[in-house]
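Let's practice the habit of predicting before peeking. Look at the sequence and jot down your guess about where helices and strands might fall. Then scroll down.
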Amino acid sequence: MKKLDYTINVGGRLMSLDSPRVMGILNLTPDSFYSQSRVQTEEQVRQRVRQIADEGGDLIDVGACSTRPGSAPASAAEEMERLREGLTWVRREAPDAVLSVDTFRADVARMCVEEFGVAIVNDVSGGEADADMFAAVAQMGVPYVLTFPHAENVHVFFAEKVQRLRELGQKDILLDPGFGFGKTLDDNYALLSRLQTLRVFELPLLIGVSRKSMIQRVLGVDADHALNGTTVVHTLCLQMQCAQVLRVHDVRAAVEAVKLTQFIKDFKEKKGC
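Done guessing? Here is the structure:
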């Protein structure tokens, strides 16, 4: 399989994705589907930031508007208020951390980038919730996570959206297959089974399956008991070389999956296995 070398520009410096990176989730929402991931106070936020760093996380993805199925999205004003407060706390604890903002609103993304130096915009709507998002990220010059929020025509969707972003001058694009968004259980596993076909775009892939219902339903567990299943899926994606970034609740487990997978790969190459 052809080796693809990826780098993204984060805050004016290049970050290599040759070895997969781990993005730790920091939820400022009171209603995230995984209750243990919710942080509300300054001390909780600072503890979570320290935990992500101590466990080997490379990036922190900060979200303030739940996108779980059936949830009522926070208003733009509420999302912005949560992020201003939360990002202030994050920056006090880790002024140099590489931050991503999980938002589908262009104005919110712009505020996070301009006021707090957020380096990546992670848009779960694939640019469909806000018509201004593509132009905003291109103008700001930050990497953009383009999520596939549907169940059909993933290649067509990515081809059309990537072309539009390129025409606007967007340089760094990461593709997120969008596990769990607008998809049935069968849709999710069909997408997983053909994940390698997305390498045709020669763009880094961000995988977000952490503790999601596609894992819970197969194992018959709830989110609190879905870590082992999450690690199995992470390992499959890593073995297929289809995970340049893992977006996770459990940083240590993901970092260990990356290290072991990389060690086995390097060992096989060295020994000619």
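How did you do? Residues 109 and 239 are 33 Å apart (CA to CA).
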